[in-house]
Each structure stands twice: as structure tokens, then as C-alpha cells.
Specification:
alpha/beta; 6-stranded mixed beta sheet; RbsD-like fold; about 20% strand
């Protein structure tokens, strides 16, 4: 066999694997719901799920996984909260950017309707509002030790990302406080 034929055979042997790998990694994940359902049982307290707008940067930390959903942001938020709500092991602690309250409709068409829809969606769950940079700092810090799942949406309005820190679903903050007080009294 000539050198040329060996090279062609080797390339043809690797080509299908390359095509499959490249297309699987580069295409938007239309099965993001299934990926979320697969990952959620593995996530626990101190993990985060971020539902972000389309300009959110791809982060380089090895603890952060980004999935392109190619979906509407409110639908992704709704799905994430529904899936978390069906678990017993985690509960959501939700953060939004405080800047969202001040973004004017004149600079970001649709922001008023988004704020209203998000408020209705979060309803009883509520959300803590913090400056964007503070939330990003918390994510960066958490990403050093814990997994963060970023679900990137088609949203094109600034400061609309919703950040969900997972907390223990079967242990409350009040129970933790009582435990710590009892331990100090010993």
C-alpha cells in the first residue's frame, strides 16, 4: 500500500468520528431539557443553574458547563423551576440583577413586558436582587469548587439573567440555625 493510500485510509477512519464529535459539540442543544433532567439529580446544595441571555460570555472555568438552548428565556426559567420543584433533594434560591429594575424601555424594547412576565413566573418563589457583578463574583467563587450549569437562551435584553443557587431540599435554613445553636450550647 502506498503512503498516499495509508494517509487516505487513516483520514477516512478518523473523519466519521471527527464529524460526529464536531457536530455534537457545536450544534445548539435542542435536547437541553433532557440534559437538565440528566444533570439535576447530580446537582446539590451550592451548585448553581444560570439561565442567561444570549450575550452572556462563555466561561473557561472547568466547573462551568454551558448549554445553548436556542429557546425563549422565560420558557427555560419555567422549565428549570418546574424540574427543580419535582425533586426532593434541592430547592431554588433565585437571584436576579438589580440593574433589571432600572433598564429603560427606550433602550431595551420589551424589558417592561419581560419584568412583568418574570415577576408572574417567579411569583411565590421570589428572587433576591443583587448587582450583576456581585452575582457573577458569587458564581466565580462557587465555580472553583462546585459545578455550575449555564443555560444560554435567545434573550436579547440586558440584565435579564436568572441565577438559581441550589440549596438542600430536605433541610431548611431554620433547621440549620437550630442545629448550630445546639452545637454551640454543648
Amino acid at each position: 500500500m502506498t503512503f498516499r493510500r495509508v494517509v487516505i485510509c487513516v483520514l477516512l477512519g478518523f473523519f466519521p468520528a471527527f464529524v460526529f464529535t464536531a457536530s455534537a459539540a457545536d450544534r445548539p442543544s435542542h435536547d437541553w431539557r433532557a440534559r437538565l433532567a440528566e444533570k439535576l439529580p447530580l446537582l446539590g446544595h451550592r451548585n448553581w443553574i444560570a439561565i442567561v441571555d444570549s450575550a452572556y460570555p462563555l466561561q473557561t472555568s472547568s466547573g462551568i458547563e454551558t448549554i445553548e438552548t436556542d429557546s425563549d428565556q422565560l420558557q427555560v426559567v419555567k422549565t428549570v423551576l418546574e424540574q427543580i420543584g419535582r425533586t426532593k433533594h434541592v430547592r431554588p434560591v433565585i437571584f436576579t440583577d438589580s440593574e433589571l429594575k432600572a433598564v429603560p424601555e427606550s433602550d431595551a424594547a420589551g424589558v417592561t413586558a419581560y419584568r412583568q412576565a418574570l415577576g408572574q413566573l417567579l411569583g411565590k418563589t421570589g428572587a433576591q436582587s443583587l448587582p450583576h457583578e456581585e452575582i457573577i463574583s458569587r458564581l466565580d467563587e462557587a465555580g472553583k469548587t462546585f459545578r455550575i450549569l449555564v443555560l444560554k437562551t435567545t434573550m436579547t435584553i440586558p440584565y435579564t439573567s436568572v441565577f438559581v443557587r441550589l440549596d438542600c431540599g430536605y433541610w431548611t435554613d431554620d433547621a440549620e440555625k437550630r442545629l448550630r445553636e445546639a452545637m454551640r450550647e454543648r
